[in-house]
Specification:
Elements: H1 18-35, H2 37-56, H3 69-98, H4 101-106, H5 113-140, H6 149-158
Helix pairs in contact: 1-5, 2-3, 2-5, 3-5
Length: 159
């Protein structure tokens, strides 16, 4: 008795390239953010709200040692906001695992790295938006750079 082993046909027997797969997964992540606006709005509003509260409610209560309080406050809040928003990336990966997203990707002829790199690109876009919004509120409340623009941009890039 012979057994017939069937294989799943692939288109041309080739896998999709890393960049194409990564872009598709990143696009899926960005669309997910756009279709779930509370993911974007919460991070943006939370950082701005806390920055405004600490700037105007507690502004005179904390001694910053000769440094302007707003120039002391804003870099700390920009960093804190990015760290809090970054926890959403970990929660999103856990949600994808729970719903079987990565299991479905394993059955596709794509490079394994594309799933993580695509998700990281989408999360980086969300974090960049949050960083820009928080920094804009910081500049609106009186924050000024004590260095040139290039070094300020490098500091934001580091975040």
């Amino acid at each position: 008795m012979s057994t017939v082993v069937e294989t799943i046909p692939r288109s041309g027997g080739q896998s999709t390239g890393l960049w194409t797969s990564t872009a598709a997964i990143a696009r899926r992540g960005i669309l997910k953010f756009l279709r779930t606006p509370q993911l974007v709005v919460l991070g943006t509003i939370q950082g701005a709200m806390f920055l405004l509260i600490f700037r105007y409610v507690f502004g005179g209560a904390i001694d910053s040692g000769g440094l302007s309080y707003v120039n002391f406050l804003v870099p700390g809040f920009v960093t804190t906001t990015i760290l809090f928003a970054g926890t959403g990336a970990a929660a999103g990966v856990a949600e994808d695992i729970e719903h079987g997203f990565f299991d479905r990707l394993r059955s596709l002829p794509i490079p394994r790295a594309a799933a993580i790199v695509g998700r990281a690109l989408a999360d980086t876009g969300l974090l960049a938006w949050t960083l820009a919004a928080t920094a804009a509120v910081g500049f609106a409340t009186g924050f000024r750079l004590d260095t040139d623009l290039a070094h300020g941009a490098l500091a934001l890039g580091l975040c």
